[in-house]
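User: I've been trying to design a sequence by hand for this structure and keep getting stuck. Would you show me what you'd pick, starting by listing the structure so we're on the same page?

Assistant: Good idea, let's start from the same input. This is the structure you sent:
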């Protein structure tokens, strides 16, 4: 049975960075860029392409904030899992 083309999304609590620091954001873009799927992060009324360094720099990442990861494509589950693992790790 063919797989239906549905995007997946998962809300995670950030526990690895304070303000949008350059290095963690750059690494997050690198993680997202490893996947073919379209990947966005959603917080409040912002939906940002996770592969765009400029877009990601405009997000306010703070420990304890909730961010929804939305991915759509052939490797969407792997992309969501990898970003969830990165955002959730203690990277201080």
């Amino acid at each position: 049975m063919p797989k239906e083309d549905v995007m997946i999304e998962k809300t995670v609590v950030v526990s690895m960075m304070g303000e949008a620091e350059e290095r963690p954001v750059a690494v997050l873009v690198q993680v997202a860029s490893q996947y073919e799927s379209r990947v966005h992060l959603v917080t409040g009324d912002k939906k940002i392409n996770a592969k765009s360094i400029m877009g990601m720099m405009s997000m306010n990442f703070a420990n304890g904030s909730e961010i929804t990861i939305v991915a759509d494509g052939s490797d969407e589950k792997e992309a969501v899992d990898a970003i969830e693992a990165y955002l959730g790790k203690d990277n201080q």
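That's my pick for every position. To get oriented when you compare it with your attempt: Helices lie at 22-33, 53-57, 76-88. The two ends are 45 Å apart (CA to CA).
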